[in-house]
Amino acid sequence: MYLYSIIKLIPLVMVNRVEKLSLLSEMIAFAKYDKDIKNIEYNFLLGVAKQLDISREDFDYLIEHPVTYTHLKSHSERIVQFHRLVLLMNIEQEYDEENKSSGVIKLYNFGLRMGLSHESITKVLYLMESFPNKIVPPDVLIDIFKTQYN
C-alpha cells in the first residue's frame, strides 16, 4: 500500500529512545482516540516502530502502557511527527468516513499541542484534499511549515 511505502520517505530525526517512545505512544493514543486500533493502523504503527528501532515487544507494551508525552524541541522533529499523524489519520479515514471531521479536529489539536502554528496546520488540512489519497507529500508539508516558521 502507498501509505506504507511513504513512511520510508520521512526522515528519521529522533535522537534518543525516550523521544522515540513518546512519539510512538502519542501515535498510539491518536489511533485509539475514539476507538480500538484497527489491524491496518496497527501494522502502520508497527512499521513506524521499526523505523524508530523500537522492538515489537516494546511497541505492544506501549499500546497498553503509554509513556509520558515529551515535547520535541526541534521544529523539524515536530513536522515529521505531524506528517506521521497525517498518514495515520488517512489510514483511519479510509475505513471510517462517518467520523472524518473528528479525525481532522483530532489532528488539528495534536498539531497545536506539539506547538505547530495553527496557520500551517490549517493549510495542510486544506491542501490535503487536493492530493491523491489525501496524502500531502513530505516536501510540500515541509515548505508549508517553513513559510510559517520564518
Query: For the report, how would you describe the main beta sheet?
Result: none
Count every helix, treating DSSP H or I runs of 4 or more residues as helices. 8
Radius of gyration over C-alpha positions, nearest whole angstrom: 14 Å
**Which spans of ≥5 residues are poorly predicted at pLDDT below 50?**
1-12
Q: Which structural category do the helix and sheet elements fall into? A: mainly alpha
Domain unit count:
1
- Order of H and E elements: HHHHHHHH
Strand proportion, as a percent range, falls in under 5%
Distance between the termini: 35 Å
Mean pLDDT: 80
Q: Got a strand count? A: 0
Question: Tell me, what's the shape?
Answer: globular
How much helix, percentage-wise, in residues? 55-70%
Name the descriptors.
8 helices; single chain; 150 residues; disordered N terminus
Structure, described:
- With 150 residues, the chain is mainly α.
- It has one domain (2-149).
- It is built from 8 helices and no strands.
- The protein has helices at residues 2-6, 17-32, 39-51, 56-64, 75-94, 100-113, 118-128, 138-149.
- The longest helix has 20 residues, at 75-94.
- It is globular.
- 31% of the residues are buried.
- Mean pLDDT is 80; it is low at 1-12.
Q: What topology does this entry show?
A:
Layout (H helix, E strand, L loop, with lengths): L1 H5 L10 H16 L6 H13 L4 H9 L10 H20 L5 H14 L4 H11 L9 H12 L1
